[in-house]
Amino acid sequence: MEHIFSVQSLDELKQVMPESCGAIQLLGHSQPGDGGGGLFHWNSHSMANPDDGIVVAATTEKPGRWHRLEADPINVKWYGAQGNGSDATAAIQGALDAAAAGGTVRLPSGKYTITQPLRMHQGTSFLGDGLFSILQYSGPDNTGCIQSTTPDLNCAFSIAKINIEVFQENAWGIDLRGMSFSRFDHLSVHLRKANTSGFFGPGDGKSPYYNLFTSCHIAGTGDATKNGCTGYNFTYDAETEYQGANANQIIGGHINTCHTAVACYGTGNVFYGQVFEDGHNGYLFDLPPGRLNDRSKGTINTIAGLYTEYINNVVVQRHESCTVTAEVTHSTGYEKVFDGISTKNSILITGHEGRLEVARGFVHRNITIHE
Q: Mean per-residue pLDDT for 317-342?
């Protein structure tokens, strides 16, 4: 029969002589009750790399490691994240690294200051409790709070039930580079500074492709007509200015107080059941500059079930080859429902037919019925 001892903190666990017991109850990472505790068992044959969360090395020179018995899902508090607004960058990155071979990292309710991008590994999930699992990002500009460890590759991830607050101008909530076949569910992104984006996704020929976004909510700051905030920024690659974000599905979600709710330079994207309020542009479709002189150019994107209030220009078409198929259920407080170059090959259906010239629905495709 083994005796189970308890220790107050991780530092105390490291000091325990392994031969004194086979199992130890850790009461907390730094102090009892801080969420970092758990039951550990001594494995005298283990030489696993210690990470001070799941695997802990003793200060003794004896071979072996302390191993956490219940290690799924991985909790950021095991690595020292407090959730009290203090800097948790290294702690959360430690938890994400522990899931490098796959697994789920849990972010309990609390406020976590992040000063550098958090890097996720292929095939991992990052799961919070909801609105009160808050990442407060103040990292460098032109970075996202969450990004792929390998942005040049095509990798799949899952991120859900997390609230990201962006406090750095020219930064983003999630950097989609290297993210394809991924899921983003029930996320909130609050843009606390101008010229920020909820999701930043320049296409590179591999990503961001085939992603699914459900019930993701994005809020800008200040005056939406000039704050430079963009909800979904599906822009083009910086090197060739040729590729866009393709074949993504955005279902539901609310975007408010953003200069542009969705900027899209890719093709085959579907936007269903979204709600936009208080902004300058709803959807803005354009062609990547590198494709302007192509013999074959153009994009095709689809909108269904859109609801808007006080969006000045609901659908914006910046290049005539950007084909739009849109069904607008309700709009109020607008200047134009369609602000475009050409209606050729596009379809827009709206219930505001005839009240204003700029709000009329149009169909410019021939429909043939065969009996």
A: 92
Among the residues of 201-337, which ranges form H helices? Answer: none
Q: Which helix (H) or strand (E) holds 13?
A: helix 10-15
Single-letter amino acid code for the residue at 179: M
* 3-state class (DSSP) for residue 95: helix
Using the predicted structure, report yes or no on whether residue 55 has a pLDDT greater than 90: yes
> What contacts 101, CB < 8 A, 6 or more positions away?
121
227 domain-assigned: yes
Strands 347-350 and 362-363 turn out to be antiparallel
Contact 73, 105 (CB under 8 A): yes
Compute the mean pLDDT over every residue in the chain, rounded to the nearest whole number: 92
Strand partners, 323: 300
Q: Which of 35, 68, 101 is the last residue of a domain?
A: 68
Q: Which residues of 194-203 are buried (b: 16+ CB within 10 A; e: fewer)?
A: bebbbbbbbb
Residues 87 and 190 in one domain: yes
Q: Residue 90 is inside which H or E element, if any?
A: helix 89-98
Using CA atoms, how far apart are residues 97 and 115, in angstroms rounded to an integer? Answer: 17
Rounded to whole angstroms, how far apart are CA atoms 218 and 208? Answer: 19
Which pairs from 300-303 meet CB under 8 Å and 24+ separation? 300/267, 300/268, 300/325, 301/264, 301/266, 301/267, 301/268, 301/269, 301/270, 301/271, 301/325, 302/269, 302/270, 302/271, 302/326, 303/271, 303/272, 303/327, 303/328
- The whole domain housing 26 covers 4-68
